[in-house]
Automatic annotation (TrEMBL):
This is Type II secretion system F family protein. It holds the Pfam family T2SSF. It is a multi-pass membrane protein. It is found in: Cell membrane. It comes from Streptomyces plicatus. Keywords: Cell membrane, Coiled coil, Membrane, Transmembrane, Transmembrane helix.
Length: 288
């Protein structure tokens, strides 16, 4: 009996020691979390924030071009034909190309704004009495207008290299064309002793005026873009109208010879119309 009691006591003592060690480790992990994050241990974000974060992660993983295939699957199930699935599969790369073009345009516009900010910040640093190389180092870190060419440009400015050539190379990035003007201002200021701040002010004003002109043109072309969107949505409206009137447009289009001919002709004309309007818009933007 004494041996049993001793064994039980030793078991409880071991369990207590194990719990104490685990509790200490948990406390240490909680302390590290608090010290690293600067917050309070055990706090959780509010439900609204967790939901927003979850939706943001889902939206980042789901590509919008796959909606064409999903719509094709729905129409195939409703119409009993495989043709909508084929059309949806063809639309996936087209929508992916459109999405990538829109993303590239946004990146280009952000870089253009960063170049304008770089010119303004550099002019301010030069007026504050800094040397051009030192001023470029400070302004580049604040604005980020050099993009992928920042390392080469800053190395040239720090170690006495050819800064205008480095700026010209960095200007090859989409949206960084304004760096060519910055390179010209730098070369004139160094070779002829002209005022760098005055040239940067004029360059910043010109870049801002160009950006405003593009914004005005985009606003004027909003009607043409709306026309393209309306042309793309007219077939869907026609199908819904036919279904509301009691007809069966999917059966006619997908299971009759005349319907297939109308579907083919309509698809070709629809594609030509959207392509023509898009070409007009892009041509106007390129000429500006």
């Amino acid at each position: 009996m004494d041996e049993v009691s001793t064994g039980v006591a030793l078991g409880f003592l071991g369990a207590a020691s194990w719990l104490a060690v685990c509790g200490r480790q948990a406390a240490l992990r909680r302390a590290r979390t608090v010290l690293a994050g600067g917050g309070t241990a055990g706090t959780r974000p509010p439900p609204g924030r967790r939901l927003a974060d979850g939706l943001r992660r889902v939206r980042g993983r789901v590509r919008p071009e796959w909606s064409a295939l999903a719509a094709g699957l729905v129409l195939a199930a409703l119409g009993g034909s495989v043709l909508p699935v084929v059309a949806g599969a063809v639309g996936v790369p087209l929508l992916r190309r459109t999405r990538r073009a829109a993303r590239a345009r946004r990146h280009r516009e952000r870089r253009q704004d960063a170049v304008i900010a770089l010119c303004g910040a550099l002019a301010g640093e030069v007026r504050a009495g800094r040397q051009p190389g030192e001023a470029l180092l400070c302004a580049a870190h604040d604005s980020g207008g050099l993009g992928d060419g920042q390392a080469a440009v800053l190395a040239a400015a720090r170690f006495g290299g050819d800064v205008p050539d480095a700026l010209a190379v960095a200007a090859r990035q989409p949206g960084a064309e304004g760096l060519r003007g910055l390179a010209a201002c730098w070369r004139v200021a160094v070779d002829q002793g002209a005022g760098l701040a005055a040239g940067l002010d004029r360059l910043e004003g010109a870049l801002r005026a160009e950006r405003d002109r593009r914004s005005d043109l985009r606003a004027q072309l909003a009607g043409a873009r709306a026309t393209a969107v309306m042309l793309a949505g007219l077939p869907v409206f026609g199908l819904l109208l036919g279904a509301a009137l009691g007809a069966d447009p999917l059966r006619v289009l997908l299971h009759t010879g005349a319907g297939l001919m109308c579907l083919l002709a309509g698809g070709v004309l629809e594609g030509l119309g959207v392509w023509w309007v898009t070409r007009i818009v892009r041509g106007a933007e390129a000429e500006s």
